[in-house]
Predict the structure.
Amino acid sequence: MTTARIAAWSAVPMRWYLGVLFIGACIHKISDPASFALDIATYDILPLAAINLVAITLPWIELFTGVMLIIGWRARSASLLVAAMMFVFLAALSIALSRGLDMSCGCFAAQGAEDDPISRMTLLRDVAWLSLALFVFSFDRGLAGLDRWIERRHP
Amino acid sequence: MEAAIVALAGSVIALVFNALRPAGLAMVARSPYQTLVPCPEPGGPVEAIDAGNPEIFSPRSFLIDARSREAFGRHHLTEAVNVPYDWLDPVPEEILSKLAHSIAASAATRVVVYGDGGRPDSGEHLGKEISGRGIKNVTFIRGGAPAALRSNSGEKSSLAPEDE
């Protein structure tokens, strides 16, 4: 087995992991966009006019990319989107941490700052997920995915 | 390019879904969100102690009740002084000064603060505040007044109504 093949197979569980992660992250945001909007507002970065729009659309993009990663359909594009989102989340977290805000990250189910405060660990965690997304983008070859299946059916 | 299309498609579906759902969010917030993010406080070190710790009632402990005047009036630990903790404003300088004098005049070597025992606990926060403003050896009772009441229910003298 070549290194490229090992990397391609390694990308498969990473793809699934990121997919599950993003679907898990979007559920509460889709079901309760008002809470998510409040989480976004707490970062105090976006203008008021943009907060609700982001709160409405971002979770659905997370859902789309999560599903695409799991089923392996256009997984490289999905991982690129995930990487872009992680980059934005990292920037927002860094700004919040540099301001010394005592708040929850709002990444998963609505939690208070007491239960899930942002910290350098949150930042490290997001860097790890960004790295996974970049790995999938670089090495995924559609193994165990819909793309490969379609390719075989319609070469 | 594909990523942009996915993002666009996701956004369109999101907007349609939001428009159709009964509790949809307005596209633009009508008024600013009320976010209350506490800024980092210049608090000092405090140590948590259990409500059953006998040191609480030692003559070397100076007791401070951080709850409201009404709660203090209903019951409080004997010898405790009331310094209601205000979540928004710092303890006024004159009260802190009086407190420092009282502690200095007593035989106490440590300050024991207790609050409502909630999350967050007013006792812990008051402890941090007064510790950060120069009063040394500050502790707070874990669980606050409710824990102190449970722990000392057998000792009549430890928890007394103000009017007794």
Notes: Chain A has a mean pLDDT of 89.
